[in-house]
Amino acid sequence: MLPSAGVYYFPWEINSSVPEGEVLRTFGRLCCYDLARSEAVLTAQHHSTQYRVCVGTKFVEPFQAQLGSLYMVLGEVEHREGEGPVVKARILTCVEGMNVPLLERAIQEQRKYFNERQERMGKSTS
Predict the structure, then answer these.
(1) What DSSP state is assigned to residue 33?
(2) pLDDT, tens digit, for every residue of 61-118?
(3) Which pLDDT value is given to residue 62?
(4) How far is C-alpha 103 from the geometric centre of its chain's CA atoms?
(5) CB-CB neighbours of 99 under 10 Å
(6) CB 27 within 8 A of CB 69
(7) pTM of the predicted model as reported, rounded to 2 decimal places
(8) Tally of CB atoms within 10 A around 60
(9) CA 54, 56, 60, 62 torsion-angle sign
(10) pLDDT of 3 strictly over 70
(11) Torsion, Cα of 96, 28, 36, 74 (10° steps)
(12) 3-class secondary structure for 70-118?
């Protein structure tokens, strides 16, 4: 069975306010991978701040980790005691060469569309 499509989150939006079990998509550069712990860390720059997203890789191993390459992940959020959120990857894909600013703009446009559609649906039911 395939996981649900998941909502796009920017790496800087993934924090303790994301609900446990939420299916999401995000992206970042693979900066480290620990096969023994089945964990990877993706990083992304936003303005002058570097953000880190911890990714559990247990369900996607073995995979050919390419440090420094851009990855996209689809998975569920798990909150771990004393650590912060971890995305339990169901799909982890290397997307090196992808145009990140264009992806960010597309995510913003998609959110805008969904919000407008939700408003129209809300008006039509009232």
Answers:
(1) E
(2) 988 899 999 999 999 999 988 888 999 999 999 999 999 999 999 999 999 998 898 8
(3) 87
(4) 13
(5) 10
(6) no
(7) 0.87
(8) 19
(9) positive
(10) no
(11) -90
(12) EEEEEEEEEEECCCEEEEEEEEEEECCCCCHHHHHHHHHHHHHHHHHHH
Question: What does each C-alpha distance from 63 to 5, 59, 60 come to in angstroms?
Answer: 21, 10, 7
Which of the 8 DSSP states describes residue 59? G
pLDDT the model gives residue 125? 66
b/e per residue 3-22 (b: at least 16 CB within 10 A): eeebebbbbbebeeebeeeb
Beta pairing, strands 23-34 & 7-8: parallel
- Within a 10 A sphere around the Cβ of 53, how many other Cβ atoms? 25
